[in-house]
Amino acid sequence: MVNRKELNPDRSPQAAFGARLRRLREAQGWTQDDLGERMGYSGRHVSAVEVGRKVPTLPVARSADTALGLTGSADAFEREWRDMVHGVMLEGFPEYVGYEARAAEIRLFEVGAIPGLLQTPEYAAAIEQSVVMHGAIPPEQAAERIEFLTERQTALARPLPPVIIVVLDESCIRRLVGGPKVMAAQLARLIDFAEQSHTVLQLAPYELGERRPFKRQVNLLTMADRTVMSYVESETQGHLDREIGSVVPLLRAYHQLQAVSLSQAASVEMINQVRKGFL
């Protein structure tokens, strides 16, 4: 075969995905154009995924499963894609996201950055690009993280959405990420979020000082059966906790935080004022 590039599936999860796609395609006796037609992509796109020039996305994985008859099986490309993405997440986070997608109520507190569920694609891309520039992850993993975030946000757009309560430290809206244009759009996204019927948005202003009970991100989930769990992160570790004895104090502290934070109306007013400075 002319210009056939040898693949090394051990180089990375992305390379393993591409090598397996080629192997299964060739087992069917299909060209890249043949598989591309069945998947709804060009043969050039299939080639790029096989040799690792393109990061496989969730739609690509699902289309490959449909074309190759693997949908829902243990060998599905969608399962491989999820394993690949989960491999770049902190311990405990993929499990947390599974619960988050089914939660009846979600409570978030964040310091320094807008939480993922409320991020615009441009804001998320700016954050991941910074991580790449610091050498923490390669560009391919940054793309996987953004894809995973998009899927996570989409999972909450269901007929009966969860109640989402968000308290942001004031630093979240004042820290410039991605430039003024990106920040202005991100703050507009926060304002839109606050206007929805199933959401609450509050700011914990700087003036709270030591009265702010949390020093880092805290996520709290209430499930349909009223069980509660928490998820907290450090720079290198994530921890999902379902023990009622340790989760309830966090929930109590969250209620106390809401009581001393700005009202939603006052929070939206502050966000609007900050946004004007980025326009």
In short:
The protein is α/β, with parallel strands linked by helices and 279 residues long. The chain has 2 domains: 13-86, lambda repressor-like DNA-binding domains (434 Repressor (Amino-terminal Domain)), CATH 1.10.260; 93-278, Endonuclease, Chain A (2-Layer Sandwich).
Features of the shown structure:
434 Repressor (Amino-terminal Domain), 279 residues, 6 strands, Endonuclease, Chain A, six-stranded mixed β-sheet, alpha/beta, 51% helix, single chain
Number of helices: 12
Helix content: 40-55%
What structural class results from the helix and strand content? alpha/beta
User: Could you name the CATH class of the largest domain?
Assistant: Alpha Beta
Low-confidence stretches: none
Q: What is the CATH architecture descriptor of the largest domain?
A: 2-Layer Sandwich
Order of helices and strands: HHHHHHEHHEHHEEEEHH
CATH topology title of the largest domain: Endonuclease, Chain A
Proportion of β residues? 5-15%
Rg of Cα set? 22 Å
Query: What is the molecular shape?
Result: elongated
**Tally of separate domains:** 2
Instruction: Tell me the major beta sheet.
Output: 6 strands, mixed
Number of extended strands: 6
| Beginning-to-end CA distance, first to last residue | 56 Å
